[in-house]
Specification:
CATH architecture of the largest domain: 3-Layer(aba) Sandwich
Bound molecules: 4'-deoxy-4'-aminopyridoxal-5'-phosphate
Number of strands: 14
Shape: globular
Strand order of the largest sheet: 2-10-9-8-5-3-4
Largest sheet: 7 strands, mixed
CATH topology of the largest domain: Aspartate Aminotransferase, domain 2
Helix content: 25-40%
Order of helices and strands: EHHEHEHEEEEEEEHHHEEHEEH
Radius of gyration: 21 Å
Distance between the termini: 39 Å
Structural class: alpha/beta
């Protein structure tokens, strides 16, 4: 059954994928590039699949400008799994790690890591930074962990994180930095060299759920604890080009199509401009229409995840219901925050943001 109604998908993740990607995946699901079989019916060790992995890696390396001394991995693991296994892979030198708290997901990462390492948490949210240890000596810590885009609160950090002024002006440059890029990888340009390790669940900007990307500096490989399960050991996966075990083959295939689509859009510099324009339009509506508000200070506003509240929360239900009737889907805010949230990942077109803003204007007129 197909629907003829126009819908706009603002889902937090799994999220919208580019329409041409879905159309191609559908068209060749039973006949992959004229071979007579599906991409999900072929051995992950066959030359044609190995070639697909290599092609995908070459495209990701070009898109993200990944330096040669970094390894790219595809792992059949959720981002949440990396909360636990990144510590196992990187904590041989010291069993202490520094966690920069920015919101829900970085706190979760710290909580899970605390089962593996001794965690020091530093709250760095603007206006909420807590007094903490005065001088951070990099020699004391195996790494620092950071989430540059907090999906639930809609908080983003422009570049390498800074610590609250009462602590120090910046992180020690030689302290390896781990970034949870689950909700922002591929949405804008990024200096990979600022990070020792980047991980991201695929289901927002990269591909379907059930696969994650890891980008790790090669000199950090081979330092995992003996207790690290082999399938979760980045070095062992790197040795086998992520084919230590059967990977999520369909996931890698869709990531390949997403990379091609990103190239057609003009790469990450173009995506960054488009995402800036999309988010700019929505924030402008939130800031100018009196019915709506977003409490995040301008400098920290995410371009991917935009929470907003109604001046009168009693209208939340009718807003969501009428939005859904207008084809504007999945706008309910996370239960931890309430209100609404529009997730503007790469595959959400400007036309969807325009439709949302127009709806918000009309709703405000009816209820202003
Ligand atoms: N980190 C961030 C920043 C996220 O947004 C999410 C999911 N929304 C996760 C981690 C957890 O992802 P997963 O469900 O793949 O474990």
């Amino acid at each position: 059954m197909t629907t003829t109604r126009t819908i706009h998908n603002f889902s937090p993740g799994p999220a919208a994928l580019p329409a041409p990607v879905l159309a191609q995946a559908q068209a060749e699901l039973t006949d992959w590039q004229g071979r007579g079989y599906s991409v999900i019916e072929v051995s992950h060790r066959s030359p044609q699949f190995v070639q697909l992995v290599q092609d995908t890696s070459a495209r990701l390396r070009r898109l993200l400008d990944i330096p040669d001394d970094y390894q790219l991995l595809y792992l059949t693991l959720a981002a949440t799994a990396h909360f636990s296994i990144a510590p196992l892979n990187l904590s041989v030198a010291s069993d202490r790690a520094l966690y920069l708290n920015t919101g829900h997901w970085s706190r979760k990462a710290a909580e899970h890591a605390a089962k593996q390492v001794r965690v020091t948490s530093v709250d760095i949210v603007p206006g909420k930074a807590e007094e903490a240890e005065k001088d951070i000596d990099p020699a004391d810590y195996a790494y620092a962990h950071f989430c540059p885009n907090e999906t639930i609160e809609g908080l983003a950090w422009p570049a390498r994180p800074t610590l609250p002024p009462e602590l120090s002006s910046s992180l020690p440059p030689n302290l390896p930095l781990i970034g949870d890029f689950s909700s922002c990888l591929l949405s804008s340009r990024l200096r990979i060299a600022d990070y020792a390790l980047i991980y991201a669940g695929a289901q927002k900007n990269i591909g379907p759920a059930g696969i994650s990307l890891v980008i790790v500096r090669k000199d950090l490989l081979g330092k995992a604890r003996a207790t690290c399960p082999p399938a979760c050991n980045y070095a062992l996966q790197a040795e086998q080009d992520s084919l230590l075990h059967t990977p999520n083959t369909f996931g890698i295939y869709v990531i390949n199509l997403v990379c091609k689509w990103l190239e057609e859009q003009g790469g990450l510099a173009a995506m960054e401009r488009i995402n800036q324009a999309k988010a700019g339009l929505l924030y402008q509506a939130i800031d100018t229409l009196p019915l709506y508000r977003n409490g995040v200070p301008n400098a920290w506003r995410s371009r991917m995840n935009i929470p907003f509240q109604l001046a009168n929360p009693e209208l939340d239900q009718s807003f969501l219901q009428q939005a859904e009737e207008a084809g504007l889907l999945f706008l309910k805010g996370h239960r931890a925050v309430g209100g609404m949230r529009a997730n503007l990942y790469n595959a959400v077109p400007m036309a969807s943001v325009e439709a949302l803003v127009e709806f918000m204007r009309q709703f405000a007129q009816r209820h202003g």
